[in-house]
Structures are given as structure tokens and as C-alpha cells.
Amino acid sequence: MSETISEGIINCLIVTNSSEANVQLTRIHEHLFAREYLSHSLSTNTQIVDRVGDPTVASVWRRQTFSAAVESRSPEMSQVILLENMPGLTKLLAPVGGITQSPSISILESAYEFSRMLHSSNSSSGGSADAFYRAFVPELGSTLYPRQIELVKRCLRSERGETDRVGATIFPGLVKITRGPVTPGRQNAENVQTVVRRAQVICECAMDQTGGSMANAPDGVNGYNNGYPG
Q1: 203 with 166: CB under 8 angstroms?
Q2: Where are the beta strands (DSSP E) in the chain?
Q3: Is the pLDDT of residue 1 over 70?
């Protein structure tokens, strides 16, 4: 479900109830974002740079597009997202009334509201550069990197300095995408990804209930509420 929220909703601009149209709109945004900074690097005229960069084309386009976005996805659109991202599990867990009656639909609705809030907000870069958000889900079995993940169950193995790995992701993390400064002679700048919200995960030892975790510890002991990384 975390992969579905990340790739099916947050990282694909859900503006209409057509999956094909949404894919095209996502590509348009990527093109505008890349072209905007190419214009920065190639232009030597201050006025041209100001018109391109303040306010930025991609940021304005994104906000205006989401101001006209559908307020809620159609049941058919939800079904497409679920079948594209978790087909086997969706068909297995679908209730008698069909996929659109699945409890997963309410989770997608909340994720869509969250996505609209992210993509329709003003740039946090003071208007001097565009910034937008993408979600990420740590790979299962990957190392527990403190700056990328937040444990929702305390892991004694990790606290002892022993190796432990990602067992499951409860909610995706978020990175803010900006562009680095353009240096003389370069035609473009690399994207800069800054983690602004860590992914909420459970370690492997908590999943298999072995001795390294505190998955069954009393409330107030097992929860990590560290907020955003510094």
C-alpha cells in the first residue's frame, strides 16, 4: 500500500479521472521543471532570468493545474491505481461487492487529499526557485538509515549497533526536489533531493517477532516520534 500511495498517487500528478491524462500531465510538469533551469543557465539577460525564475514556470503551472483538479477520484480511477500497483493482493482481498468496496479505497482517498495539498502549495524556496515533493519507499531488506527512516517500533538490535533491516513500510517518506546552483559553462543543474519527512517503517526483527525488537512493548515505550530530520 505504501508503494501504491507513493508511485500511484503522490509521484503521479492525479488531476483528472483519466490515468492516461494524468501520466501526460506528470510528463509536462517534468519537462517544465527541467526547461526552466535550462533557461536559467543559458540566459545572460537579467530580465529574462527574472521572468523565468520568479515566479517559476513549473511552480505556477502546477498550482494552477491543481486548482482545477478533481476533488475526489472516481471509483474506477481508484480501481485502476490498485490494480496497477498491487494487482495480486487487490484481487485476493477484494470483497464481494468488488474492488471499489475495498477498505483500501478510503486509504487512497486520504492519500489523494495529502497529495493535492503537497502539489498545490506555494514553493517553500521564497519564490526564487521551484521546489516540489516526491515520495519514496525504502527497499525491503535495506539498511536502516536514520536520516531516511523512522522506526514505529523500537528495535533493540539497532540500538545495540547490530545490523537490522527494513521489514515493512507503514507510510512513505518525502523528499523536496530543487535544483542546485548553475555554474558558469554548464547548461543545467542537478536535482537536489532533501528528505523532509522520513518513511515510517518496521524492522525485520519486529516482523518475525524475534528477540531483537520491542514490538510488544507497552505504549509509550515502543513508539518513535522524532519528527523531521535535522
Answers
A1: yes
A2: 132-136, 149-151, 166-171, 173-179, 191-197, 199-203
A3: yes
How many angstroms from the chain centroid is the CA of residue 63? Answer: 17
Q: Any idea what DSSP says for residue 149?
A: E
Amino acid at 67: S
Measured distance between the N- and C-terminal CA atoms of the chain, rounded to whole angstroms:
27
Give the residue from 158, 8, 3 showing the smallest Cα distance to 73.
8
- Comparing 42 with 10, the larger pLDDT belongs to 10
Cβ neighbours of 134 (radius 10 Å): 17
- β-pairing verdict for 199-203 and 149-151: parallel
Segment 200-227 shows an average pLDDT of 55
What distance in Å separates the CA atoms of residue 194 and residue 196, rounded to the nearest whole number? Answer: 6
Locate 42 and state its grid cell: 543559458
> In terms of residues, how long is the chain?
230
- Sequence-ordered list of residues with C-beta below 8 angstroms from that of 131, at least 6 positions apart, any chain: 59, 123, 124, 125, 176, 177, 178
C-alpha atoms less than 13 angstroms from C-alpha of 7 in its C-beta half-sphere: 13
